[in-house]
Amino acid sequence: MTQPSKASKEYIRETDKPPVLENDGAVLNFINNGERYSPRNDQDLCKILQLFVTNKSFNFTVLIETPSKPFSDWSFPKVCELYGISNVPNPDIDVFPVFTCGSTDLNSDKSKTMVEHLMAEIKLRQDVTPLNKENEETKSIFLTAIWLRIWSLVLQR
How many domains does the chain have? Predict the structure, then answer.
């Protein structure tokens, strides 16, 4: 088996290199109907999600690419710092900024019920497993609950 030359490795890296954040951190990409989307800020993400909703294209793949180190090496505090959410060593859930996409009317009865259930679920999880513990798995449980409810709101549209 032959080894690729240094020049060909560099060429491949440059050719297939996705745009990354200024400090070479995690990059979020989406694949939908064979097309790749690469949001680089909240506004891009909103536009992409709105496009999916408009096209009634509710199945997509999210890729979290970490060009500088494996995904498992990232911690919740480091990701918060990377995205400018918080510099606190052990951030709590209240560090997340308000994110609006504008795809669902939150004043409908279904939406209000969904949000009430989400808040009750988060409150229950927070009572049972406080988020301020240094446990990445616990933090991902909270985020999963939020994403599932958000996606349910999008699907009911």
Answer: 2
